[in-house]
Amino acid sequence: MVTLGRQTAFSSSLFRCPMKNIGYGLLLTFVLTGTAWSQEAEQTSPAKPASEEVVSDEVALNEDEIAIFQAIDSYTAAFNKGDAQALADHWTDDGEYVSPDGKVLKGKDALVKDYLSYFQETPGAKLEVRDTHVKMISPRVATETGVAVVMVADQDPSETTYEAIHVKTPAGWRIDSIKEVVAPLPAPTHYQQLQGLEWMIGTWVDNAEENASVETTGRWTTNRNFLVRTFRVFIQDQVDFEGTQVIGWDPSLGVIRSWTFDSDGGFAAGRWSQSGNRWTVQSLSILPDGRQASSTNIYDLIDENTVEFHSIGRQVAGELLPNIETLTIIRSE
């Protein structure tokens, strides 16, 4: 904040003493606005069979592990064909299945009956297993953990985590038990709305003035719901002024907002809007002495390591102040 009398790094700071426009404008630039880089979504490759997914070039599987992964692939293929008997044949005679809702099925007869009923109700259902891990407990027992995704036409995919016990029988490796639980829902996040400001992550510095600099550091909070930025103004290597800014998505208004607090006791709130590589912040501030201030702060992202900032329409208690001319801020790390 930049205070009209003594500019603060983000919003109220812009209004600190005119003689201290140095890095305050720069600081304000970063705290109040940010330019967005267009980012391409990462493309995901088609899911691989379980036998390929877990095998790395550095880990060689023994014969039993290979056989278990082959059984997993065979089980998946049988499910995707809707073959209830083939699925049941992957189990031991007394195999036990526990569903996410706690329902227990025991024995091949019960399993076949349940499979037949399921495929009649949901024809064309497809199974995909992910993040499959197999661990040998003994020469004749192994555990398997992973994520099972069932896809049915016109329905959202259902996802569960599971643990299976495999035992070695004269007929080969068979499933002795499977327990499924509903996969936990991902934590809510507004990252999608804020990712255009991800360039703020890291440390930025404005050294435009001799014996003075502004350092701004940005980071994500847990779940990427907020960006937190801290700024420090150095005068001859001594911290003269500092503050914190929090940037987040306001779902009630559908806009990005920011809240800034500085070490002089000033604070500010801003609304952010984007046009290409330009971010514009409409900021309202309360100065330490109680006066109200406002400004329009503009950030232009030049490249991934350079941002230009300027501030217009600055006023305190109704009195117009000069604009802050373009300042250049450089990423330091």
Oligomeric assembly: single chain
The SSE order reads: HHHHEEHEEEEHEEEEEEEEEEE
Based on DSSP secondary structure assignment, what is the total number of beta strands?
A: 17
Here the CATH topology of the largest domain equals Lipocalin
Spatial order of strands in the largest sheet: 7-8-9-10-11-12-13-14-15-17
Strand content: over 45%
CATH C-level category of the largest domain: Mainly Beta
Label the overall shape.
elongated
Please provide a written account of the structure.
- This protein is 17% helix and 46% strand.
- The protein has 333 residues and is α+β, with helices and mostly antiparallel strands.
- The chain folds into two domains: 18-41 and 190-331, Calycin beta-barrel core domain (Lipocalin, Beta Barrel), CATH 2.40.128.20; 50-182, Nuclear Transport Factor 2, Chain: A (Roll).
- It has a ten-stranded antiparallel barrel. It has a six-stranded mixed sheet with strand order 2-1-6-5-4-3.
- The chain is elongated.
- Mean pLDDT is 85; it is low at 1-9, 17-46 and 51-58.
Keywords:
333 residues; alpha+beta; Lipocalin; 10-stranded antiparallel barrel; 6-stranded mixed beta sheet; 17 strands; DUF4440; Steroid_delta5-4_isomerase; SgcJ/EcaC family oxidoreductase
